[in-house]
Amino acid sequence: MVVSQSPVDIFKSQAHTGLVLRDVDAFVAHFAPDCVLHDTGESEPRVGREALREWVTAYLESMSDADVEYLTLFSAGEFVLAEFVIRGMYQGTGAGPSGTRVALQYCVIDQIRDGLVLSETVYGVPQQLDRQLSAPIGFGGSLKPALSVPPTTGTQPSAFERAHGTVDRRR
User: Fold this and answer.
1) Where are the domains of the chain?
2) Dist. CA 2–CA 10, nearest whole Å
3) Cβ-proximal residues to 109 (8 Å cutoff; 6+ apart), any chain
4) All residues at 6 or more sequence positions from 105 whose CB lies less than 8 Å from its CB, including other chains
5) Any bridge partners for residue 18, and if so which?
6) Which of 31, 32, 56, 68 is deepest in the core (most CB within 10 A)?
7) Cβ–Cβ < 8 Å for 127, 144
8) CATH architecture under which domain 7-134 falls
9) Could you report the average pLDDT of every consecutive run of 10 residues in the chain (171 residues)?
10) How distant is the alpha carbon of residue 128 from its chain centre?
11) Selection from 88, 92, 89 nearest residue 69 by Cα
12) In this structure, how many other beta carbons lie within 10 angstroms of the beta carbon of residue 165?
C-alpha cells in the first residue's frame, strides 16, 4: 500500500479494485488486519480481513459488470465520506434469468490511517433493490429507475398497467 496517497485516493482505489475490477485480494489489502466493517444492514460488525473478504465475496456473487459514480466525496483528517451509486447486473434472488440491471445508492464513511482502512461504515437502502426487481427498469442517467410498460397480449390491462395507470391498446 502506498501511504503517500490521500485518504480519498485510497478510498477510490479500494472501491475500484473491489467493485469494478473484482479483485478481492487487492480490495482486502486496503484494510488493516483488524479492520471493522459496520454494514448497517447487518446486526453485528465484521472484524478482520477474513470477515471483510466473506462480505465482499458475497456481494460480488450477486453483482457483476459494476461501475461506480461518486455523487459526494470528501475527507476531513483521517475520515472519508462518500455518497455513490453502483450500477451493475444483479444476479441474486429475484433477478431475471440473465440478471437485472440495477442502480444502488450508498453512503460510506471510512477511517483511514497510515494508508489502510481501519473502519468502514456502509449505509444502504435495501428497499431500492426490491423496487427495482419488482418492475422492468432502465437507467436514463437517473437514480430513479425509469418504468417501461410491457406489452399486453389480451384485452384486459396487465397487473403492471393497473398498478401504474398506463394502458396502451395501439397494437
Assistant:
1) 7-134, 136-171
2) 9
3) 79, 80, 81, 82, 120, 121
4) 71, 83, 84, 85, 124, 125, 128, 143
5) none
6) 31
7) no
8) Roll (3.10)
9) 80 95 97 98 96 96 95 97 97 91 97 98 92 63 34 43 41 36
10) 10
11) 88
12) 7
